[in-house]
Design goal:
Structural class: alpha+beta
Helix content: 10-25%
Number of helices: 3
Keywords: Signal
Largest sheet: 4 strands, antiparallel
Distance between the termini: 76 Å
Strand content: 25-35%
Order of helices and strands: HHEEEEEHEE
Number of strands: 7
Radius of gyration: 22 Å
Length: 140
């Protein structure tokens, strides 16, 4: 009788251990590097040439908070049409799982407004990373 009860209790504990684990073991064991990551998006016109944009807004859809774009690093060159969206300096704005972020920009040439969604993670609080979304956005 005691053996059956012990087996039932052991089975119950085993099953309860299979529930979803909310901890992020990879984050707990992660070692960060000294690099400083940047994340951006490239805007092109319908010909594939770099497009100048204005009125760029970045909103974290999880928090509803508008994110101030990071400053461009000194002595660094980016491709034409590149807009800096996030960096390791702004990684605290994002969760480890990744947040949907709405980027809205207006073409200087045509006045067209484009809205794009990227999913951005804080990389377990080490380096900002893009989880999903386009590398390049093209205005019509």
């Amino acid at each position: 009788m005691y053996k059956k009860l012990l087996c039932v209790l052991l089975l119950a504990f085993s099953i309860s251990a299979c529930k979803k684990n909310n901890n992020k073991p990879a984050c707990e064991l992660q070692a960060c590097t000294a690099m400083f990551a940047y994340l951006g998006i490239v805007y092109n016109n319908h010909n594939g040439d770099a497009a100048q944009v204005k009125d760029v807004t970045i909103v974290n859809l999880r928090t509803g908070k508008t994110i101030i774009p990071p400053s461009y690093p000194p002595a660094a060159s980016f491709v034409a049409g590149f807009v800096l969206i996030a960096s390791d300096g702004t990684k605290d704005e994002f969760s480890a799982e990744g947040d949907d972020v709405r980027i809205t920009a207006t073409s200087v040439t045509t006045g067209q407004v484009n809205t794009t969604i990227l999913k951005i993670s804080n990389g377990c609080n080490c380096h900002v990373t893009k989880v999903s979304g386009p590398e390049t956005v093209t205005f019509d």
